[in-house]
Amino acid sequence: MPDPQPSDDALLRSLAERDLGALAALYDRYGRLAYSLAYRILGESESAEDVVQDAFLSAWRGATGYRRERGNPRAWLLSIVHHRAVDILRRKTTFRPAPLEAAELQPGDEDTAVSAERNVEHKTVRDALEGLPPAQRRTIELAYFGGYTHVELSELMGVPLGTVKGRMRIGLQKMRRVLERTR
């Protein structure tokens, strides 16, 4: 019987102890998802690859600072990717978001079972997002996939900054509850 895969938490502990195998395992587990997120935000393959490389290097350097009570390892890694991609996006003068379908068409070498699992996960997140009231959904989409800051969203949507922050917080809490029920 093959050895079970180590948990994300175990991999993060090993990463904090400078285990390169843990970094490789995390990359194998989340590299494509990280790339898809970066590609969705940036709209170009080369920049998305750079963001993913930088994010995993940052995870390697900052693994000792990871705190489980602030989120799971997957969310921690993807937040690093998101922040790096948004930083690059802000440095650019123009932004043309790429459709999610373009990122999904990137060639891959993963097997069908992994691909099917990822597609179910994506659909679950999309469904949770679609279940939000329109104002909360739009705020989250613009922030995470458009790269807008809270202040920019306030100006763009014509609402107070506190309203933007409230929509984000409440919308993300609702999504978290829906996603926890589907596990």
Which short descriptors sum up this protein?
2 domains, Rna Polymerase Sigma Factor, Chain: A, Arc Repressor Mutant, subunit A, mainly alpha, globular, single chain, 9 helices, 0% strand, 183 residues, 73% helix
Task: Write up what this structure looks like.
The chain has 9 helices and no strands. With 183 residues, it is an all-alpha fold. It has 2 domains: 99 residues, Orthogonal Bundle (Rna Polymerase Sigma Factor, Chain: A); 73 residues, Orthogonal Bundle (Arc Repressor Mutant, subunit A), CATH 1.10.10.10. The model has no long low-confidence stretch (mean pLDDT 82).
Blueprint of the fold:
Layout: H1 8-16, H2 20-42, H3 45-62, H4 73-91, H5 100-104, H6 112-130, H7 134-144, H8 150-157, H9 161-181
Helix pairs in contact: 1-2, 2-3, 2-4, 3-4, 6-9, 7-9, 8-9
CATH class value of the largest domain: Mainly Alpha
Described by the principal axes of the CA atoms, the overall outline is globular
Write down the domain tally: 2
User: What is the strand tally?
Assistant: 0
Query: How much helix is in the residues?
Result: over 70%
CATH superfamily of the largest domain, called what?
A: RNA polymerase sigma factor, region 2, helix turn helix motif
Share of residues in strands: under 5%
Question: Rounded to an integer, what's the Rg over CA atoms?
Answer: 17 Å
Q: Gap between N and C termini, in Å?
A: 26 Å
Low-confidence stretches: none
What's the architecture of the largest domain in CATH terms?
A: Orthogonal Bundle
Order of helices and strands: HHHHHHHHH
Query: Quaternary arrangement of the chains shown?
Result: single chain
Number of helical runs?
9
Largest sheet: none
CATH topology of the largest domain: Rna Polymerase Sigma Factor, Chain: A
Q: What structural category characterises the helix and strand content?
A: mainly alpha
How confident is the prediction overall: mean pLDDT? Answer: 82
